Amino acid sequence: MDVWQAACLEAVVGTKSTKTKTTTKPRGSQSAKKLDLYAKHKSEYVAGKLPALVRVGPAKYLGITGRSAPGAEEFGRGVGALYTVAFTIKMAHKFAGSDYSVTKLEGLWWLDGAGATPTPTTIWNWQLLMRVPPFIKEREVKDTIAELLEKGKSADVQRVQLLEIDEGLCVQILHTGPYTEEQESIEKMRAFAAQAGRKFAGKHHEIYLSDPRRVKPEKLRTILRQPVA
Questions:
Q1: Which of 34, 107, 109, 127 has the smallest set of CB atoms within 10 Å of its CB?
Q2: Stretch 194-198: mean pLDDT
Q3: Do residues 70 and 6 lie in contact, with contact meaning Cβ atoms separated by under 8 Å?
């Protein structure tokens, strides 16, 4: 499905360079283990060349919602705002002694109207996500956004919210190749769901494992997830 453009992800990676550098040591034990949400929830990220059923439990995300054509300016601003908030919160926890690994960018995508056919200029509804640990609280997110605004960061950070998403039973597959060629993988997922007596329900979910600045289009790896009923 043609919902993602490499230019947008380039903006994502660029925001990583904004992390504050410091030599201050974190509080607490230096041997404290950094929380890895992928390792903790390994079964939820199982994805191979063939579709499979996975059960995804409730999870917290930082998210930002928008509506635009892929690659539009609004989309790029949303990516930047999400990463700004996510890394600011992560660094605060790192130096408080409760460090965790920042997760990959994810996205929910949907069109207005059932059966709509996308084109390169289609206006998409999107919700960009980054999974966060359960100890992240709404008050902390709001305070972080207020501090960023005081420091002159883009007003787009106000659009970032703390969300809880419970997708339940899903069909999942690892798509290798250009984002524009996802449809073949999606049809495999749809056929697999039908064979299992299920049907697609909910929003199409993508988890971006590769950096398109450094990986050739034919080698890009993306987990495609689709809730089913």
A1: 34
A2: 97
A3: no
pLDDT of 8 over the 60 cut:
no
Q: Where are the domains of the chain?
A: 6-15+36-111+120-227
Nearest of 62, 40, 55, 86 to residue 166 by alpha carbon: 55
CA–CA separation, 19 vs 17, rounded Å? 6
Count of H-run helices and E-run strands, the chain: 5, 8
Angle at 214 between CA 211 and CA 220, to 5 degrees: 55
pLDDT, tens digit, for every residue of 40-90? Answer: 999 999 999 999 999 999 999 999 999 997 678 998 999 999 999 999 999
Closest CA to 177 of 209, 129, 130, 225: 209
* Tens of pLDDT, residues 155-166: 999 999 999 999
Q: What is the pTM of this model?
A: 0.86
Q: Packing angle between helix 138-150 and helix 73-94, nearest 10 degrees?
A: 110
* Side-by-side strand order, sheet with 221-227: 52-56, 168-176, 221-227, 204-208, 106-110, 124-132, 59-68, 161-165
Measured CA to CA, the distance from residue 228 to residue 201 in angstroms comes to 5
